[in-house]
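ok so for the tutorial part 2 we go from a plain amino acid sequence to predicted structure tokens. step 1 is just haveing the sequence, like this:
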Amino acid sequence: MNTDHAAPEEIEALRAAFDVDDDGASALGWPAVHAFENEHGIVLPEPYRTFVAEVTDGSYAGPPDHGLVGLADHPDGEGTDEGRGQVLGRPFPLTEAWLWEDDPRPAEELEPILDQVFRHGSIVLGTDGCGMNWHLVVTGPHRGHIWNVMGEGANPFGAPFGHTTADPGFAGWVGHWAAGNSWYDAAE
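step 2 — the prediction. this is what the tokens look like for a chain of 188 residues:
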């Protein structure tokens, strides 16, 4: 998974998966992507960065089930609070799955960590409903990885983490969806 350079074949596969053939009309363009990055003090991971700049910024087609949201959009108003720009530059705190619902620590100890999981270092790509959102990590050790963050816990997506046969990262996540695979297909 290369988060610094987009391979042309990855971009073409992403374009095909979303069936985008509008000569870039639905894309943000590089000036808008650079402005977003400058405003938030981050550099988006590839190939997502090139995807939103040159292919499309969001899509009614999945993934996830309710479609891919635009770069600056968030499902159900999530992450639209003032100060969102400052938290994108702070590292996403997790590197392994965490089911906080079963964590024995007291709530006052968990709350600050949960706030970081939901607000630091990731953008929401979309939702599968019922509070199950897919995040792209933009800062921290898991930069470029996709995470499923829900009310009960969070887990990384990709074969190295279990539950799925998919490659990690945005291209692997989209490719898995485009092939019609179930998100959690490793046990099938």
